[in-house]
Amino acid sequence: MLKAVTVPIFRKHILSGLEAGRACAFCFSVCLLLLSPSNTPMALATKLPPLQLCPCRPKPVCNPCFPTLGKLSCPSRVFRVRCATKRTGKRRYPSEKKELDRRNKNLIQTEVANREEGFWRLYRLNVPAHKDPGKDFLGVSLPLLEAVAKVLKFPVASMLPQEAFSIVRKSFDARKLLKEPVFVYTVDMDVKQLLNLEPRTWDFIARLEQKIGLLEYMLHKKESDDLIRVIHDFRGTCSAMDKDRLDILSNEFYRFQSSGRPKIAVVGSGPSGLFASLVLAEFGAEVTLIERGQAVEQRGRDIGALAVRRILQLESNFCFGEGGAGTWSDGKLVTRIGRNSDSVQAVMKTLVHFGAPQNILIDGKPHLGTDRLVPLVRRFRQHLQGIGVDIKFATRLDDLIVENGRVMGVKVSDVWLGSDLKSQIWPYDAVVLAVGHSARDVYQMLLRYNVDMTIKDFAVGLRIEHPQELINSLQYSALASEVCDGRGRVPVADYKVVKYVSEDGANSSQRELSRSCYSFCMCPGGQVVLTSTNPSEICVNGMSFSRRASRWANAALVVTVSAKDFDAFSCHGPLSGVEFQREYERKAAALGGGNFIVPAQTVTDFLENKLSVTSLPPSSYRLGVKASDLHELFPDHITQALQHSICMFDRELPGFISKDALLHGVETRTSAPVQVTRHAETYECVSLKGLYPIGEGAGYAGGIVSAAVDGMYSGFALAKGLSLFQGDTDTLFGKPQGSSGFVKY
Ligand SMILES: Cc1cc2nc3c(=O)[nH]c(=O)nc-3n(C[C@H](O)[C@H](O)[C@H](O)COP(=O)(O)OP(=O)(O)OC[C@H]3O[C@@H](n4cnc5c(N)ncnc54)[C@H](O)[C@@H]3O)c2cc1C
After folding, report:
1. Rounded-to-integer distance, Cα 520 and Cα 497, Å
2. From atom 14 of ligand 1, which residue's Cα is the shortest distance away?
3. I need a labelling partner for 613 at 20 to 30 A (CA). Which of 130, 158, 555, 714 fits?
4. How confident is the model at residue 237 (pLDDT cuts 50, 70, 90)?
5. Whole-angstrom Cα distance, residue 259 to residue 341?
6. What is the pLDDT of residues 17-60, one digit of tens each?
């Protein structure tokens, strides 16, 4: 009886505390005592060291490393786990509530300029999933009009004309804390059109008041354009400028090496290189795009040969080749650098220009999938060639030509013919380095020129794979039957979990003792793929097709690592993080036993620290998995952080720990392990003139969209430096949202 009453109370207390970032050790201990050990995940959790959940009472730190998990019941091993959830609604702190009230008050006092026209943006309109026409419907349905009518306090929803509304955003929310799963809409209401079509709405419009994040008024609807149109419009305005300025511009050209136009090499055709090339070429630079890998047509065949015949082409694989690392991927276009910012919108619209479906502009979690990315990249290439970009595939940058501390050109070799005799030197006025984080040879080369590089935090871990049906049912319960292999009304279920695990005694100022454990690059309905660029190393990632119809759901489960973790490799200087990655990739290859076989272990065995002896559950990884003890891979503190976070993830998603869940080793290339220091405004490398390090490899992006945005801004910055562009990028796109290159999509 005591147990029946107290457990729910304590559990509720703990969970709400966890969500608010504070929980009480007492409650947690009591709960552990009272809960039945027959509860599988909890039983596993109890085998791990007790978790101290109260950050307000830190214990003295004796050892900065995570304690060993050898004997699972040792009481002295104390971890603290905090959740990273945003406080909303009733969970807001009083100071946050006060600030919100103040902003609301200011907004209400701002006079709505003209109530008879303009637009109202209505946020957070919830339509229950069972009433909504489904994820692929982007029109205005009657249930949505009902939600709008509620906000307007308009009595008859069906009288609201659909034409007056347009969908800005549509997402699916199936969190358990909701009464029922809902589609959440953001909608723009065109007042003039509404009053024309239904004058009886006037009384209601006249009474509307602004409320931050719920109901906001704008006189004009802001429509962003794709990048090509933005540049064309800008150049159109420029051509109307006075002749003097154009003379200055053309005089500037004379200082360039040959044709009178600045000659730029962009190295790497990933998102950052493609967008930088686009901007520079549209502004009139003579651009050569140098790519070590193959065009998507041949690259597809090379990836096929890897999957079927185990042939790894060193220069044409999942990381290298046209479109960059993200071409054979899930093509998630989510980003943490501000989805609604003008720069991100310009990138998204440009993707639509090159064939991405319109729904990426509306979908709350847009994704493309490999089948859509490949033709998109091809169209991007055709456009670049159409505006004069010379694209050199199978051409690898081997060296920079440096004179008097300035890059004057590049030394490249033809990797398709595999002959060093094919090495050539090409002169350029500037070199944009967009090589991604797997170009370790380029990092080495930069080191030879004493290019200033700093060690950057990143994350390492394992890739977990569950049956997709399991994830659907964990997330959607009864609604799981509506997924229908991606053809159904609700999206194929995904998840995102984050926990902070820190050693006993660490407080918020001791960041080096805390590790973030999180899932990322979740590929619903996807497959695990090999992203090694060298046959003696194994690293994995995930991809999927647009419909996300495979039987599996995979995601990286990673733990942050920083300079302290790379101490053992300090002789490699700023590249110690690269050596750290390489070390675990080699270990994974050895554990797998060669032939690209990936070491794997079930989640339950990984938590209990025992080898998976019975047969492993099936894996989507095509080249085979081998039952291995994944504890042999990483240092103990990383393995333990992963174990603890998995237990915590299971509390958020009960069933996450399952005998059908398989861990694959290793996931090491989550983002660049270094950052190449560059000037904040010119994007030029601070230690080598004429070099422009951009994108993920340079440590300034983490994902397709942020890399594209970085490429775009750097293109503008360089165009400005070359006097091809005389405007202000901030006016066009706003200030770049500084990406540390750590924040992932
Ligand atoms: C399997 C996989 C799945 C992913 N899924 C997603 C996802 O769903 N969503 C997301 O946002 N991100 C995803 N990513 C990450 C994303 O692909 C990268 O963040 C993004 O591509 C980085 O862009 P970039 O232009 O900076 O570099 P990259 O895309 O890495 O491009 C670098 C290019 O430079 C070329 N290159 C390298 N060295 C040389 C040289 N010496 N000479 C000539 N060329 C060279 C390479 O061949 C490559 O084409 C995924 C990555 C992988 C590997």
Report:
1. 8
2. 326
3. 555
4. confident
5. 37
6. 433 333 334 333 333 333 333 444 444 444 444 333 333 333 33
- Amino acid in position 236: G
pTM for the model:
0.86
Of 8, 2, 50, nearest to 647 (Cα)?
50
Domains of the chain: 2-83 (no CATH), 101-218 (no CATH), 243-403+681-733 (3.50.50.60), 457-667 (no CATH)
What's the 319 CA to ligand 1 centre distance in angstroms?
A: 6
Return the best residue to mutate from 266, 279, 290, 320 for the ligand 1 pocket (most ligand atoms within 8 A of CB). Answer: 320
Cα 41 from Cα 38, distance rounded (Å): 9
pLDDT above 70 (res 115): yes
Nearest-atom number in ligand 1 for the CA of 328 is 1
Q: How far is the CA of 593 from the centre of ligand 1 (A)?
A: 27
Q: What is the mean pLDDT of residues 405-423?
A: 84
Neighbours of 571 (CB within 10 A): 8
Rounded (5°) CA angle 317-323-328? 50
The pocket around ligand 1, CB under 6 angstroms, is made up of 267-273, 290-293, 318-321, 324-326, 329-332, 396-397, 434-436, 439, 442, 521, 529, 531, 541, 543, 695-697, 701-705, 707, 745
Q: Which atom of ligand 1 is nearest to the CA of 327?
A: 17
Q: Which atom of ligand 1 is nearest to the CA of 412?
A: 42
The alpha carbon of 69 and the centre of ligand 1 are apart by a number of angstroms equal to 36
pLDDT at position 277, please?
A: 98
> What is the residue whose two structure tokens read 């109370």?
9
Report the alpha-carbon distance of residue 304 to residue 316 in Å, rounded. 11
Which residues make Cβ contacts (< 8 Å) with residue 492, sequence separation at least 6?
468, 472, 483, 485, 486, 524, 525, 548, 549, 553
Q: What is the pLDDT of residues 657-690, one digit of tens each?
A: 999 999 999 999 999 999 999 999 999 999 999 9
Question: DSSP 3-state assignment of 734?
Answer: coil
pLDDT single digits (tens) 198-222: 999 999 999 999 998 899 999 988 7
pLDDT at 13 over 70: no
How far does Cα 5 stand from its chain's mean position? Answer: 43
Q: Kindly report, residue by residue over 288-316, the tens digit of the pLDDT.
A: 999 999 999 999 999 999 999 999 999 99
Nearest Cα neighbor of 445 from 267, 200, 652 is 267
Ligand 1 center from residue 436 Cα (angstroms): 5
CA of 600 to the centre of ligand 1 (A): 25
Taking CA atoms only, the protein residue closest to ligand 1 atom 27 is 436
CA of 620 to the centre of ligand 1 (A): 22
Residue nearest to atom 46 of ligand 1 (CA): 320
With beta carbons less than 8 A apart as the criterion, state whether 526 and 554 touch.
yes
Task: Kindly write down the DSSP assignment for every residue of 79-130, as one continuous string.
Answer: EEEEE-PPP-GGGS-HHHHHHHHHHHHHHHHSPPS-TTSSEEEEEEEEEETT
State in Å: Cα 136 to ligand 1 middle.
29
Residue 20 Cα to ligand 1 middle (Å): 36
Pairwise CA distance, residues 684 & 273, whole Å: 15
Lowest mean pLDDT among 48-57, 117-126, 500-509, 640-649: 48-57
